[in-house]
Amino acid sequence: MSEVVMSQELCEATYKKVGQELTELLKNEEKRPILLCVMKGAMNFLIGMMKYVECPVIVDYIHISSYDGTDSTGKINLLKDMTFNPEGRTVVIVEDVIDTGLSLAYLKDYLNKKYHPKDVKIAVFVDKTARRKVDVKVDVVGFTMNVDKYIVGNGFDYHDMFRNVPYVFTPSEEDFKKWDEMIAKDPLMKNE
Ligand code: 5GP
């Protein structure tokens, strides 16, 4: 059975909580900090929570891919780098979920080495604690999930589908079977 993990109302309340925490964290920065959205999963999170951030910020995005279906490959591809040079400023990586931690560890290290920012902080919508492989400091957590289940909806995808669903859910075995059949018939999905 599929199950709702975060209702639309809970998502909104989580955005508010995260936006308020980020305001506290960033309000005394001398140079405008950068909110760096990790595409595509964190789109919904960024748009939802940034309206509750009440201090000046710059918004940018970066595009990485690390997942193949529901399995972490541990291999991270940088598809699009950030636009602004964050040297000497605080960057907040805005990520949809931390699972093994590999993507965020890679990204934090990459930004530090390439750009020498003042600081790299991390805000995640969902902290999945069960499969952590590397220890990464997360500064702001929206929602904590201790069960190891694949989530879909509200930014979270399955082969790029369902990001538009306004709540977060765990699909059933039948859902995955049905979707895999759909994907097999759709050439666009097969190339994804
Ligand atoms: P990590 O490197 O921490 O294992 O995984 C980070 C990335 O894996 C996330 O940015 C996200 O794209 C993807 N991911 C991890 N868990 C889930 C999940 O339950 N559902 C979806 N849709 N993506 C996930």
Question: Summed up, what is this model?
Answer:
The chain has 192 residues and is α/β, with parallel strands linked by helices.
Are any ligands bound, and if so which?
guanosine-5'-monophosphate
Record the strand order, biggest sheet. 4-3-2-5-6-7
Principal-axis shape equals: globular
Q: How would you classify the helix and strand content by structural class?
A: alpha/beta
Q: How large a portion of the residues is in β-strands, by DSSP E?
A: 25-35%
- Average pLDDT value? 93
Helix content, binned percent: 25-40%
Give the N-terminus to C-terminus distance in angstroms.
Answer: 27 Å
Radius of gyration equals: 17 Å
Discrete helix count: 5
Largest sheet: 6 strands, mixed
User: What is the H-and-E element order?
Assistant: EHEHEEEHEEEHH
| DSSP strand tally | 8
User: Poorly predicted ranges (pLDDT <50, ≥5 residues)?
Assistant: none
Overview of this structure, please?
The chain is an alpha/beta fold and 192 residues long. The model has no long low-confidence stretch (mean pLDDT 93). α1 packs across α2. It contains 5 helices and 8 strands; from the N terminus they run βαβαβββαβββαα. The relative contact order is 0.18. A 6-stranded mixed sheet has the order 4-3-2-5-6-7, sandwiched between helices. Strands 1-8 form a two-stranded antiparallel ribbon. Guanosine-5'-monophosphate (5GP) binds next to β3, β5 and α3.
